Task: structure prediction
Amino acid sequence: MKETDDLSLVSEVTVSHNRAAFDRLVVRYQSPIRRFFLHQTLGDEQLSDDLAQDTFIKAYVNISKFRAQAAFSSWLYRIAYNVLYDYHRRQKPTDDIDTSEAARRNADHTDANVKLDVYDALRRLGDKERTCVTLQLVDGYPIDKISEITGMAVGTVKSHLFRGKEKLTTFLRSNGYGK
Result:
């Protein structure tokens, strides 16, 4: 039902240039897309908002290229993944990820220790591992959808998931979580 509704809204946007229809798509997907970026940026809310905004701008500009060969949500996440990839590519290789401003800002919250431990664990993963792990564990996407979103082969996704989960488990166990 949701995919049919998405297709109807996409059609309204492409045929009638109906901005209200696109606004409905934004409302539907802004929280999941922002959450995706929040996990990829290790809690940097401002950067997540900026990347999400860039994603929706690119989606609006390119909506006529959507061919419904996959779900609209997969197409949108693919754009988000590409926005993230472009962002990482533009970053200086000397940036020190361990001095995350987001980690310092979140230190004042009561649940911050657990949140920081999760972000510290995610920080240990490579970009592709982090993307695959959060798409599966946080957003609930199956491996085939992660493959669609990232453009990686299913076997590559499985490999990133395996290595990423192993790294997360090792880090979290060494910090007192689990047995």
